[in-house]
Specification:
Layout lengths: L1 E4 L2 E4 L7 E4 L5 E4 L5 H12 L6 E5 L5 H4 L9 E5 H7 L4 H14 L17 E3 L2 E6 L2 E7 L8 E5 L4 E9 L11 H12 L6 E6 L8 H20 L4 H7 L13 H21 L7
Parallel strand pairs: 4-5, 5-6, 6-7, 11-12
Antiparallel strand pairs: 1-2, 2-3, 3-4, 8-9, 9-10, 10-11
Length: about 280
Amino acid sequence: MREIAKGVYFEDAYFSGNVSCITTAEGAVLIDAPMLPRDVWAWLKSIASVSRQGIAFLVNTDYRVEHVIGNCFFPTTATIAHQAAWNEMQRYDEGYLQRYISRHKQYYPSVDDDLAKARIVLPELTLSTEMTLYKGDRAFHLMYAGGHTPASIMVLLPEERILFSGNVVVTGEHPSLDQANTLEWLHALEMIRNMDDVDIIVPGQGDLCDPSATEVLTDYITRIREQVYEHYASGYTRRETVDKVKMDGFFDVPTANRTHIERRIRGSVERVYDEFKKGAGKKRR
């Protein structure tokens, strides 16, 4: 766990992505939760070492299972998310979770069998556009971003000039576009670059960065849109387009993760193709 400002910590060693802890005199505020039980226990130990007041709130930055399944390990903590996350999470029944876990075990055999006992805990508080949370002497500005998912939110600490972006920003790896609105995502990234009260971004995946790092993600989304549109406009089918669009050279891919990343890229191409087919992506940028 790294302290990036006084009482502001983040951890990037967990399977499901980055998690953060901000301490206050009235309890800690957490940004996302680890997915695996072993990571949760390690995270709880880290939190206990810096917060004697316990945990006050947990913020889910979107509804993806890897970000929300850990809610059940914080049973006494109030959870905050976007209203669209609450709506989507109602669909996560036991069968859905088991299919999700089985699919991940194909690529990451180390995923704990203990996840079979996990359950979805719905957020207690939701927002639609923005919310300001005051805890102790800190202010937390929660804002809708969209793009990555219809429920993606970010958390700004204005005094510390730190933005917790969730997966609206990822660094050093292929983003997942399989549930994205890519034009909205490009707008969200431009919005981040225009924020004059942000020095540090804690991304959903990858290392800390500043707003200029979003340019790489903008280039990635723009390039995949251009390639998909070229094939879509030329009459190629969705499957043919998936086979022809190549994004694997954009970021280095560890050999151990190649199958998983290739599947992620295919899902992204399929999503962008569907956007153009439905007319949602007519304007290429």
